[in-house]
Amino acid sequence: MSARLQRVLGYLGAVVVLLLGWQLLASVVGSPALPAPVDALTEFVRTFVPDLLPHLLTSAWRALAALTLGTVLAVPLGLYLGRSPRADAIVAPLIFLSYPVPKVVFLPVLLVLLGLGDLSKIGLIALIVFFQILVTSRDAARAIPAASVLSVRSLGAGRMQVFRHVVLPAALPEIFTALRIGTGTAVAVLFLAESIAGSQGLGYYIVDAWGRIAYNAMFAGILAMALLGVALYEVLDSLESRVCRWTKVGS
Amino acid sequence: MADLELRSVTHDYAGVGRDVRALFKLDLAVAHGEPVAVIGPSGCGKSTLLLLAAGMITPNVGEVLVAGSPVTGPRRTTALILQEYGLLPWKSVFHNAALGLEIRGVSRAEVQTRTFESLERVGLAEFAGSYPGELSGGMRQRLGLARALALDADLLLMDEPLSALDALTREDLQDLLLELWRVRGHASVLVTHSIEEAVFLGRRVVVLSPRPGTVAAIVDNPDMGERDYRGAPGFYELCAHVRSLLVQEGAVGRLAGTGGKG
Q1: A213, A48 contact by CB (below 8 A)
Q2: CA B240 from centre of chain
Q3: Using one digit for the tens of pLDDT, what is the confidence trace for A5-33?
Q4: What's the structural domain count of chain A?
Q5: A118 lies in which domain range?
Q6: What is the pLDDT of residues A191-209, one digit of tens each?
Q7: Cβ of A165 and B103 within 8 Å?
Q8: Are residues A2 and A118 in the same domain?
Q9: How far is B259 from chain A (nearest CA, A)?
Q10: N or C: which end of chain A has fewer CB within 10 A?
């Protein structure tokens, strides 16, 4: 409990520092495009339930669906490739060639194929997350010590049991790290995708406010987007400390 | 009937560019309930011998029999205890000890009772909820033993299980191994680098020659397991004898650093 309290206090301190910095910057810049935190926060509170919340929920759903989809597809494939040299020899060149291609350039293609709604955004982000998790889980599975696999196999474990007892748990911490990095990318790409097409989501809200020169509303949207990022990160963090309890102990 | 029998076993590894011969025409029989220690220079194929006995690999030539039948894969009541303990850091002490039973699909209730019994036997019952990362080296090795005990193994294969421990912990664990053998009467093959350990825990001490490994000598050790054997004159004489055999095999120069108790 005290660790949680410490965490909350840490967050509060960081918020205060950020707000002070924002205030300082706003008064130095003195432009309506960068409103003071008080104005932005007032707007945020005033418009949160009627205006912001539906957009926030849309964006949150898209991000969560994409992260889930990308992870669920990438983890089994990555772990399999990491443990099967034969399959890896065939697939690895494909991954190495396609991994560095910025997936975001496929946004127009996806918009045409999947429409302007949820599907194209979820598809794009899932694609990006998929590659990040795929590469990470493949590498993590390759690095598993032979002794761990040997000891479990000597107990009579088959392929699936080796996966369940050794490969998956051994790779989980690294998968979570990749996911946490992935959330940052996901929210950034989400903003881009929503700002280009559609009439829902925080990206749309922010760019729309910008077009209307409603800078306070624009900043309320930015705050909501930041909130979304923090919430996703926190969810992953608490999930990780529950699933990977062993990483918090001892040596 | 021998519990474990290797008949004229030859085994090669695929090395870089050419095959490496690990074992050559090795014959070894371990009787029912007999503790055997295997000692030899580095790279004499000791670990290969254990992997063969555990059914993890099959020999290129020759036969491996356990309880009279050829070994084709891991066996229900053979336990392999590895140097790096083979523990899984992401599983609690309880689940590490229970792993063999869980893999074998034993019922939950039975897993519970047998695992706690075996943890109690090695003195780890109160640490059931901890993780291996929270245990000392000696405790981790006890946990490796607990897993074998939970399986009710009648054949224990140990690959330098105590080599990473300090001298005192090591003697402590040697006493525990002896005690467990006295109570349970399992057959065991202990691969070790330590002459004292081999003589303390092996009713017979098998000396292997350098690669390719083959049996160079077998030393009978009828007094093994007697009270205070470590301090007995016979113990020292046998250690000296085994040492001289290893010198003949050209191995002691290498053993000097790791062979002693401290």
Answers
A1: no
A2: 22
A3: 998 899 899 999 999 999 999 999 999 99
A4: 2
A5: 35-248
A6: 999 999 889 999 999 999 9
A7: yes
A8: no
A9: 24
A10: N
**Which CATH number belongs to the domain containing residue A115 in this structure?**
1.10.3720.10
Q: Can you list the alpha helix ranges (DSSP code H) found in chain A?
A: 2-29, 37-47, 53-83, 85-98, 107-114, 118-142, 146-154, 159-162, 168-196, 202-211, 215-243
Q: Within this chain, do residues A58 and A90 fall inside the same structural domain, yes or no?
A: yes
Residue A1 pLDDT > 80: no
Residue A3 and residue A101 in one domain? no
ipTM: 0.81
Q: Cβ separation of B134 and A250 shorter than 8 Å?
A: yes
* Element (DSSP H or E) covering residue A204: helix A202-211
Q: What's the confidence (pLDDT) of residue B128?
A: 95
Instruction: Say which amino acid occupies B85.
Output: Y
3-state secondary structure B161-188: CCCCCCHHHHHHHHHHHHHHHHHHCCEE
Domain co-membership, A11 together with A64: no
Average pLDDT over residues A85-97: 93
Q: What Cα–Cα distance (Å) separates residue A91 from each residue in A95, A97, A98, A168, A214?
A: 6, 10, 11, 20, 49
DSSP-assigned beta bridge partners for residue B192: B39
Angstrom distance (rounded) from CA B119 to CA B34: 24
Amino acid at B117: E
Contact across the interface for A165 and B84, Cβ inside 8 Å: no
| Nearest residue on chain A to B72, alpha-carbon basis | A156
All structural domains of chain B with their residue ranges: 32-57+72-77+156-262, 88-153
Q: Are residues A126 and A180 in the same domain?
A: yes
**Tokens at A249, concatenated:** 């102990």
CB hemisphere CA count around B233 (13 angstroms): 0
Give the integer Cα–Cα distance in Å for B90 and B110: 23
**Could you tell me the CATH superfamily of domain B32-57+72-77+156-262?**
P-loop containing nucleotide triphosphate hydrolases (3.40.50.300)
Residue A183 tokens read as: 């959330």
- Select from B73, B86, B134 the Cβ nearest to the Cβ of A151: B86
